[in-house]
Specification:
This protein is α+β, with helices and mostly antiparallel strands. The protein folds into two domains: about 240 residues, BirA Bifunctional Protein, domain 2 (2-Layer Sandwich), CATH 3.30.930; about 90 residues, Anticodon-binding domain (Rossmann fold). Helix content is about 40%, strand content about 20%. Helix 13 links the parallel strand 12 and strand 13. Helix 6 packs across helix 10. The longest helix is centred in the first third of the chain and has 20 residues. The protein starts with 13 loop residues before the first helix and ends in a 9-residue tail after the last strand. The model has no long low-confidence stretch (mean pLDDT about 95). Bound molecules: zinc ion (ZN) (2 copies). The site of one zinc ion (ZN) has 7 residues, from helix 8.
Length: about 425
């Protein structure tokens, strides 16, 4: 084979794409019930937007972005996540002036140059939401409830909701001092990444997958114990609403978000079936991002979910219940006259929403019947040369095997 899809990318073939469509349909349906409206933003943006929006010190910006210089010498980056572009669009089109709370959803490809592993690719697909304009904890509860609802709707078994608060810059600075102090004499046993994080972004050390780092962090002071009064109250309200909604959650003091602009509520939905890479969906508040990108101080919250991971879980659980659209009719013909008639017939039937196919390979009737069978056609209309002259055909029900003679003028009524 001369050409292959690039490492970390994949083709979604027709035998699989209908499952993706099903997943997307379900997700869109739920988003719309919660009054989120779709936004489609470009796949590439100025590199600066992501550097600012995601954070210069993050792994994404440092190591994982697909960045290139275009013919006009501009630095361009393929979007590694959805939020920065959506907030850029929100600001560019002054959406906040048209409506104080803007609820948006998106679906699409994202790009990160990571080491490919199960359910993690270099071009991957996400769906997500952003609710921009409210600091009210009831919105946090709605967003979390929506995330849970999607898992329910898609029939994900045994997923767990992890919840934490990562505070605001005010309480974070109090935590930071204690944390740095605690970790100071453990530095030598940490991985190189964590040594850098120690200097630049200590909270992110909790994200480290290195076992020695995890061990060293076990007793480390956690953010949630340092929340200022405002953040504490917010967190308590979110938990209260979740209880009222009967949503089970696990308080996970080590849960941090990988991106700089997150504040207060952070949450993830995990599924054990995935093993190590077990996060299906993650999100939280990002009250600082809109301002960071040049807007007014505007609170916001959202989440993003990996579609490859959802597909993986649903396939492993065998709980993806959807069928490909059926082929209603295959028209098998013999002779030029019948063929010409079939072309008109299937055009008319398709206008009545009957899914039709015929033969374009000049196959024998027997081979056409085999093809109809292979394509799981519900019915086959057989128009032979003799029948054509009499204005008749044979209609075969492929399930029962029953065959009936039918007038060509009456074929349309079968699906009336
Ligand atoms: Zn705070
Ligand atoms: Zn580490």
């Amino acid at each position: 084979m001369k050409y292959k899809a690039l490492y970390g990318t994949h083709d979604i073939l027709p035998d699989d794409s209908f499952r993706w469509q099903h997943l997307e349909d379900q997700v869109r349906k739920v988003f719309s019930l919660y009054n989120y409206r779709e936004i489609r933003v470009p796949i590439f943006e100025e590199t600066e937007l992501f550097a600012r929006g995601i954070g210069q010190d993050t792994d994404i910006v440092q190591k994982e972005m697909y960045t290139f210089v275009d013919q006009g010498k501009r630095s361009i980056t393929l979007r590694p996540e959805g939020t920065a572009g959506v907030v850029r669009a929100y600001l560019e089109h002054s959406l906040g002036e048209k409506s104080p709370l803007v609820k948006l959803f998106y679906l699409g490809s994202m790009f990160r140059q990571e080491r490919p592993q199960k359910g993690r690719l270099r071009e991957f697909h996400q769906f997500g939401i952003e609710a921009i304009g409210s600091a009210d904890p009831s919105l946090d509860a709605e967003v979390i409830e929506l995330a849970v609802r999607i898992c329910d709707e898609l029939k994900v078994d045994d997923f767990k909701l992890h919840l934490n608060s990562i505070g605001c810059p005010k309480c974070r600075s109090m935590h930071r001092d204690e944390f740095l102090n605690f970790m100071k004499n453990k530095l030598s046993s940490l991985c190189d990444d964590c040594k850098t994080r120690y200097l630049r972004n200590p909270l992110r050390m909790f994200d480290c997958k290195n076992e020695e780092c995890i061990e060293q962090l076990k007793q480390a002071p956690v953010m949630v114990d340092f929340l200022c009064q405002n953040c504490q109250m917010h967190y308590a309200q979110v938990k209260k609403y979740l209880k009222e909604l009967n949503i089970e959650y696990l308080e996970d003091k080590r849960l941090v978000r990988g991106l700089d602009y997150y504040t207060k509520t952070a949450f993830e939905i995990k599924s054990d079936i995935l093993g190590g890479q077990n996060t299906l969906l993650g999100g939280g508040r990002y009250d600082l991002l809109v301002e960071e990108l040049g807007g007014k101080n505007t609170p916001a919250i959202g989440f993003a979910a990996g579609m490859e991971r959802f597909m993986l879980v649903l396939k492993m659980q065998k709980s993806l219940k959807c069928d490909e659209k059926k082929l209603n009719l295959f028209v098998a013909t013999l002779g030029e006259e019948a063929k010409s008639f079939a072309l008109k017939l299937i055009r008319d039937l398709r206008r009545k929403n009957v899914t039709c196919e015929t033969d374009y390979l000049q196959r024998s009737l027997k081979a056409q019947m085999r093809e109809a069978n292979r394509q799981k056609a519900e019915k086959v209309l057989i128009i032979g040369e003799e029948e054509m002259k009499k204005g008749k055909a044979i209609l075969r029900d492929m399930r029962s095997g029953e065959q009936t003679a039918i007038r060509l003028t009456e074929v349309g009524r079968v699906w009336a």
